[in-house]
Amino acid sequence: MNTDPIVETSPNVTYGLDVVISCNISEPQSPITGHMWKKGDKILTSDKEPSEYTTYKIGEVNGDSSGVYECIFETNPPVSGTVYVTVKPHVTAYKKSEHGNEGDTGVLICKCNSYPPVSQWTWYKIKSDVNEAIINGTEKFIIKSSGNKAELRIASLDIEKDPGEYICNATNELGTSGAVVGLRVRSRLAALWPFLGIVAEVLILVTIIFIYEKRRKPDEVLDDDDGGSAPLKSNPPNHKDKNVRQRNAN
């Protein structure tokens, strides 16, 4: 009577450096032709060794390396085992500082890439060094979360009340951690300043050209008058006076 092969795995991992996880198979139903380690759909390593024991080394246990690891023995049929590398949430802000215009809807986003998945998201606003919980579903705030991503929407941004620092907290079975997101609210007129600056520059340039042209035209008119006037006519010689002087002399 054939018995199903048994795969024994190393204990689940929650912390450490240069951590080695392993799998060991007993009573395989066919010869082992190799091994493979996978994390999700990604193949981490593979070999063609016939050994009943296989290992994989994790450099550092953190949010990026956490997840479900699968060891696969290449038999007929293949046999696998699972090792879980778990950590508390590793939360990061999509942007450390967000900007919004007065009256618009502000959106703050946090994400968590660690395993196990987040079971609860909570948001706070820091007021006078105190974390004030944000209530979801009010006219002002809407919280949307889907697994390892959370979004806080702030309706009708107020330039006086809404700027500041917000905290997004994520919780899973190993604990809670969070990240801080800053929010700045700009006046609606702020978006017009670049346009108004360009208009002002154009007006100044037009004024300078107008003044220059107005001062230049009188000078050109004077130059044209001087250059176009006819030369003065000299009086013809008076022959009559000359004849009178000649008679008197005789």
Automatic annotation (TrEMBL):
Pfam families: Ig_3 (PF13927). Keywords: Cell membrane, Disulfide bond, Glycoprotein, Immunoglobulin domain, Membrane, Repeat, Transmembrane, Transmembrane helix. This is Basigin (Ok blood group). Residues 5-86, 89-186 form the Ig-like domain. Residues 220-250 are annotated as: Disordered. SMART domains: IG (SM00409). GO terms for molecular function: signaling receptor activity. The gene is BSG. It is found in: Cell membrane. It comes from Chelonoidis abingdonii (Abingdon island giant tortoise). GO terms for biological process: cell-cell adhesion; neuron projection extension; neutrophil chemotaxis; photoreceptor cell maintenance; protein localization to plasma membrane. It is a single-pass type I membrane protein. One of its GO terms (cellular component) is plasma membrane. InterPro entries: Ig-like_dom, Ig-like_dom_sf, Ig-like_fold, Ig_sub. The chain crosses the membrane at residues 191-212. It comes from the Eukaryota.
